[in-house]
Amino acid sequence: MRLTALATVASLTLTQTAYSQTTSSCNPTQQYSCPADPALSKSVNVDFTSGESDQFTASGLPTYDSNGASFTVGQSGDAPMLTSNWYIMFGKVEVKMKAAPGQGIVSSCVLQSDDLDEIDWEWVGNQQDQVQSIYFRKGDASTSGRGAAFHMDNPTEGFHTYTIDWTSTELVWQVDGKTQRALKATDAGDQYPQTPMLVKLGIWSGGDSSNAPGTIAWAGGNTDYSAGPYTMVVQSIAVTDYSTGKSYSYSDQTGSWTSIKAAGGFINGGSTNVDTSAPAITSVVSGAVPFEGTHRTSTSVSTPGIGNWRATASGMTSTVATTYPGLPSGWTVNGSGKVVPPSKATTVSIPLRMLLLISCSLSLGLAMGFLL
């Protein structure tokens, strides 16, 4: 009986471990011998009004017409996305797009690295007067000041050009050519994003009823699918890699930009942005910033729910999350890009040392029984 109980506990522990991980090819700051990242090493301009592009890989089936690439949420689990087939190591990304309307709907433009450095634009569908900028270093969302919201008129009703200009010394967010935020690497300290990044474009339902309460609150409330579908449209994207070479690799596990090596090229060897001032940030996220949806496929660490985070039109406040941000624990994404919730079975976590101690004790007890 006790052996059966032990086997059950071990099985539950392993089940929890599997559920608390989402997919990732390799995190170079946690694993050795990760493959090199293919480098863009040039500039590309993609016009989605002409159809799909071989520069990106699609999941969740975005569609194309004369307006551009459309990303639609029509029902629970829809999360279409495009992911670049290359990485940039510092660079400039300009995307011309129209965000999706709708309570609970989140449109995203995300730069993300294998070790979870990240630079984002985020649009919450029922917040018609703002866009959010966010950055992360190695997935750490525990400190304040990472997120800032900027006022703009109706991002869901017209096309605007959103720019991320990123170098080793400064990170700039612009809307229609006007600088909204500038972050100096010296001001961010060890939290400055600085490793090779993929580019992702996507939409997801933060207000889905199966999401964590904090996620739903941040997304503006529960999603009403009967009022949809909800569509984000990307007309074009222009990307310039400021470094050169065939690929980028991590020479150690520090995640520092100076440890990144370029095969056949130079890190930070291309163009750079011009130093520019930015207006004062008046709406700042003061605690942990939740991120899910478009971020999901590169997360390589435990990612349970995110806690109670809330955004308002007049500013954003938050409580510090007690867990790592990301897709809720146990959630997965199937091959078509659908977000799949876990089973409702309760899992139990017991430290490995305790399992070994119990196992050894039972084995010793059985041996003593035979001797007696």
UniProtKB/TrEMBL annotation:
Enzyme Commission numbers on file: 3.2.-.-
Disulfide bonds: C26-C34
Alphabetical list of Gene3D superfamilies matching this protein: 2.60.120.200
Broad EC category: hydrolase
Any single Gene Ontology cellular-component annotation: fungal-type cell wall
Active-site residue list: E118 (nucleophile), E122 (proton donor)
Catalytic activity: Random endo-hydrolysis of N-acetyl-beta-D-glucosaminide (1->4)-beta-linkages in chitin and chitodextrins
Every GH16 domain range: 22-227
Pfam families: Glyco_hydro_16
Gene Ontology BP term (one): fungal-type cell wall organization
Span of the signal peptide: 1-20
Membrane topology according to the record: Lipid-anchor; GPI-anchor
Keywords linked to the UniProt accession: Cell wall biogenesis/degradation, Disulfide bond, Glycoprotein, Glycosidase, Glycosyltransferase, GPI-anchor, Hydrolase, Lipoprotein, Membrane, Signal, Transferase
Localization, UniProt: Cell envelope; Membrane
Family of the protein in this entry: Belongs to the glycosyl hydrolase 16 family. CRH1 subfamily.
UniProt protein name: Crh-like protein
